[in-house]
Amino acid sequence: MLASLPAVEPPPSDRILNVPNAVSFARLLGVGVFWWVLVVADNIALAAWLIFIIGWTDWIDGYLARKLNQVTKLGKALDPVADRLMIVSAVIGGLVTGVVPAIIAIPLLVREALMGVLTVYLALRGGGTLEVRYLGKAATFALYGAIPAFYLAAAGFLENLMLVLGWFFGLLGLIFYWYVLVEYVADARTALLHVKSLSEPDGLTKENDAGS
In the chain, fewer beta carbons within 10 Å around the N or the C end? Predict the structure, then answer.
């Protein structure tokens, strides 16, 4: 009996309008709603639940893309953008309002800034986009538990419990976040070396091979 070969996923398409991308766009719009709730409505508790809902629906667009065979280049780019934009917004909003402790917020913002620089540099050098690592997803989910917990504590909802959860998942997510940044730097270096190898003239490559 012949062993069955693993299924090969089709490459991402160039489509823009489909169900998974609509979910991603909705999550992006949710960031704007979050700012309105926090700044205009001054409702910290509702802002907390928005962070939680937007964060924990992160798996839906990816699941639908795979289930419906609608994986797109735009979708692969939108997913991490929606995550980072929500986390950065929640952290900045929490830092300004005194909801999120600075010892958690500032390292998160520095890490996001470094990740943004790395992503832009890689794209400008023709290295494409970085594949999301599972540890990065785990860090994101931990932070999506920690940040709204700090908001709920500030709103007086189970304050002691929310503070414990906020500190636990916040420190855990922060450690994972910085560790996976090192892995992303290594991924970016590998991608740039691949781009460089493709751009080298055949003659030069052969001379280098002969001299080695």
Answer: N
**Span of 26-35, 115-124, 193-202 with lowest mean pLDDT:** 193-202
Q: If you compute the radius of gyration of the chain from its CA atoms, what whole number of angstroms results? A: 21
- The DSSP code sequence of 66-116 is HHTT--BHHHHHHHHHHHHHHHHHHHHHHHHHT-S-HHHHHHHHHHHHHHH
Lookup: tokens for 201: 């003239």
The second-level CATH assignment, the architecture, of 19-198 is Up-down Bundle (1.20)
What pLDDT, on a 0 to 100 scale, did the predictor assign at position 2? Answer: 43
Beta-carbon neighbour count of residue 107 at 10 Å? 15
Burial of 99 (C-beta count, 10 Å sphere; 0-12/13-18/19+): buried
For residue 43, the Cα-to-chain-centroid distance in whole angstroms is 26
How many angstroms separate the CA atoms of 146 and 158, rounded? 14
Q: Where are the alpha helices (DSSP H) in the chain?
A: 19-35, 44-56, 58-67, 73-97, 102-124, 134-154, 159-199, 202-211
Q: Rounded distance, CA 164 to CA 150, Å?
A: 9
Residues 6 or more apart whose Cβ sits within 8 Å of residue 70: 13, 15, 18, 19, 20, 21, 64
Domain boundaries along the sequence of the chain: 19-198
Query: Does pTM surpass 0.85?
Result: no
First to last CA, the chain: 46
